[in-house]
Structure formats: structure tokens, C-alpha cells
Specification:
TIM Barrel; about 45% helix; single chain; 10 helices; alpha/beta; 8 strands
Length: about 220
Amino acid sequence: MWTKTQVAKTIDHAVLKPFATDQEIIAACKLAKEYHIASVCVRPTDVPLAARELAGSDVVPSVVIGFPHGANRPEVKALEARLAIADGAAELDMVMNIGKFLSGDLDHVRCDIAAVVAEARPHGVLVKVILETCYLSLAQVAAACKIAEAAGADYVKTSTGFGDGGATPEVIGVMVQTVGQTMGVKASGGVRSYTTAAAYLEQGCKRLGATATQAIVDEAPA
């Protein structure tokens, strides 16, 4: 059984819709502080605002990099990471270059991730690699996890929430089995209830990406 406090500390509350306003960022930060969740994940231009709103709390600002398609040049992702860290981001959720991965250019994929890790590591900033698993076979999910591990990332994550599907128990099982001893695994996409959240945590996830944070935590046992 996962309590309200335990579940809350695994949640990255996402505010990533293209039409999200400053007022919605502020409201999300207020909710995050009230529920003591892990982080508020925002778009790059929202990091300064989120950092100010979360200052002095136990919630950190996280940011998406190369979002949502992952097709930015490695140099652009690295610069985006550097600027986000300077703005106050403590965690980076970067999108793997899915097209290059599916094309077999695995060196590009590894170097792309490593470029962001190189910006983050000196500052103690976590890097989570979004694989967008809805476009991958289970074997490809395992291979992508190993690339992220080799590139020095801290977490692998299922989904952006903007693809054709989110986390599934089968995918999470492969991710945990492949790198769960050396990396964190984050389930994202479709995590809307306490039951789903608890099931992924039982499988071995260390983080959950969600927008239905209040509903998930409110459903959890005290």
C-alpha cells in the first residue's frame, strides 16, 4: 500500500500544453507545494516563473528538452538544457531522437543524450530520457534504455503525453528489467488514478508523470 505522502513524492506534475498560461503555472506550483510532490514539469520559457513560485519549498522545477518530438540538433538540446539550468531547473526531461533511433543511427542517439548529460552533471541536475515507447517494440524499448544508460542519463521515461500512447505495464516491465538496477524508471502517459499509479510503483517505477495529480493523491490511503 502506497500512502498519500509516498505517492506524492513520486509525481512530476506536468504543465506542458501549448496554451498553458502563467496563471496555470502558478496554480500548479501552489498545488505541488500543498501536496508535497516531487516536481512541477514545465516548458522551457516557464522555468523562471516555476523556480520563483517553488523557491523555499520541497518541490523542484523540472523542464522538458527537445519537446515533444526530440528532433532538435544535439547542440540545440544542450543549449536548451544549459539555459534551463541557469533559470533554475533541477531536472531535465529530454526527448530521445526517435527518428534517428528507428533509422539505426544509434551513435547519434547516444551523443544526443550525452550532450544534455554533460550540461546537467556538473550542476547535479537529473536527466530523464523520454523514449516515446508507443512507437517502439519491446526489444527496441530495451535497446533504447541501454543507450540512455550508456550516455549517462539518470532515468528513462515512457512518454511525452503527445504521442499515440502512454505507459503500459508491459513496457514498464521491460524498462525495469533492463535498467532498473542502475537507473530510475518513470511512467508517464495515462497515469490518472491511484490504482494505476500504485501498480506502476509496485512494478519498480521511481517517478510518475501526471496531470491528474490531485485526484491520484486524494485517492491514496492516508
